[in-house]
Amino acid sequence: xxxxxxxxxxxxxxxxxxxxxxxxxxxxxxxxxxxxxxxxxxxxxxxxxxxxxxxxxxxxxxxxxxxxxxxxxxxxxxxxxxxxxxxxxxxxxxxxxxxxxxxxxxxxxxxxxxxxxxxxxxxxxxxxxxxxxxxxxxxxxxxxxxxxxxxxxxxxxxxxxxxxxxxxxxxxxxxxxxxxxxxxxxxxxxxxxxxxxxxxxxxxxxxxxxxxxxxxxxxxxxxxxxxxxxxxxxxxxxxxxxxxxxxxxxxxxxxxxxxxxxxxxxxxxxxxxxxxxxxxxxxxxxxxxxxxxxxxxxxxxxxxxxxxxxxxxxxxxxxxxxxxxxxxxxxxxxxxxxxxxxxxxxxxxxxxxxxxxxxxxxxxxxxxxxxxxxxxxxxxxxxxxxxxxxxxxxxxxxxxxxxxxxxxxxxxxxxxxxxxxxxxxxxxxxxxxxxxxxxxxxxxxxxxxxxxxxxxxxxxxxxxxxxxxxxxxxxxxxxxxxxxxxxxxxxxxxxxxxxxxxxxxxxxxxxxxxxxxxxxxxxxxxxxxxxxxxxxxxxxxxxxxxxxxxxxxxxxxxxxxxxxxxxxxxxxxxxxxxxxxxxxxxxxxxxxxxxxxxxxxxxxxxxxxxxxxxxxxxxxxxxxxxxxxxxxxxxxxxxxxxxxxxxxxxxxxxxxxxxxxxxxxxxxxxxxxxxxxxxxxxxxxxxxxxxxxxxxxxxx
Length: 700
Description:
By secondary structure, the protein is an alpha/beta fold. The chain contains 24 helices and nine strands. Keywords: Membrane, Signal, Transmembrane, Transmembrane helix. The chain crosses the membrane at residues 339-358, 370-391, 397-418, 425-445, 465-486, 498-517, 523-541, 548-568, 605-626, 647-680.
């Protein structure tokens, strides 16, 4: 009876500790406050929206586009993701997004996307309605004159019944397409004509726009937005092709997609940001409709993905917008070569460690362990590479390679010269600690370095712009469990092993889930069961079904609590945790689950090779849990030397596949966890069996 009581106290204490962790996580969040440097003064309502497509910050200069530069000098600026539901977005899709707040076109969106069809025109609720005008024709003067005449003369007067004017200034072919320079010149001419018609002055090309304060293009205009709403014009830039051909990729589009121009004359000299991105100088097209409504004191539906744009003080807003644009564009070509230039050494190390004939040679095996242990260091260094403006270099790929190597070399020295180098288990655990610690630290400090970084937030993809993305989460759980393998190997008692698991689990969970840090909704659904299961396994308690069910229920309860507390914050400060509550309250829980499952499936089967990787990962998950039956003698020897080894593998397998099930891009999560274990587990394995006497040298 006494033994039974003691065995029950352990899981009870574990559950109590996890509950305390959850309470500290949700109750310890700081009270909501405006970000430092964010513009808080009241602004007039938006009265004019200028629409184009294909325009990037690389196109706007005082020499080539004086009118557009003049507008930029009197506005807050941002680089904008204009992605749509199709492979490539065109202006017609973007114009629908401006009105509905959802990615267009709704009529062509898959049902699982959750986009309302038929779409709802959110701007129809404006007191004065919307006046749509098209100045993209050969004679824009009459249309521009009509637009100016519809604008209110006095922002401080009673103008609630004045319409918001949406003026199409014409499209620009995508970067690299024929006729682009002429189209940009024509666009600038129309913008200049608008300023002149409103009573303003456009400086000469290359002239001083606002140097002495005598020229301000925005002074004659009400609060104005200029947004480039698509990557391609409606004709796709290809004579005779339909927009649908370009959008779906049936026709090869000339040029390439880049972040688009967004500016707001409400507060000059600042950077645009929003609750959607949490990044200075980056906004999303879906933020425009909520911004227009908010400027008129009207709320957008809580389920709309966008958030009202805000302005934040930065040293040079246009330089920042240009940096965001160039980094997002050049990262696509530079990311893989830069990471592989360093991480590729891991392949050499794995060959040495996994080929028995090579692994039996002590000196060569030591080199293999060093190479394999150093390979993952490219991940945290790559994530922080955005701190260095490598994209400004004449050869950005070489510059990024240099940044990766300059950052990874000191970490490699720390790894290979520290006291942990004396054991192979210590070497693997130290490498894992650097990887997990680097990723978690970046998120805990506000995700300030992810933009423009390999493995970081990809502004052109339009996924997460902050916090722990699924691929990073996979790396974190893979690295943290390898770290726990090393820590548990050094613990002499079950209590010590449990303490190590709970300590690491607490840090990882807090950073991954906290709305102001990782803001990863699905991570707690995987982390609490994973670390809870591991703590139970290393404690020596016999695992019961109610243990597993209890951990699952606890995870759901904690996630719900965090989401509700995030939902209680102001709408413009919520993360997707809080917006999930809005979906539940609107009765869309089923649609959200269906969309997540659909996106997960489409990614798994739609990306070449990813489905195969998932199948391989599933097979490996089974094999590593039965090493003797699979003939993995070295792994079986590791289990003999480190009893917690199998428990850790059970936990990572459970955590990775649970994460796969509850996330919309679960395949990349599994890939990240698998990558960490494939590289670092061989570092910790004992030497292969001697062909002569069957001896096993552990030297862990």
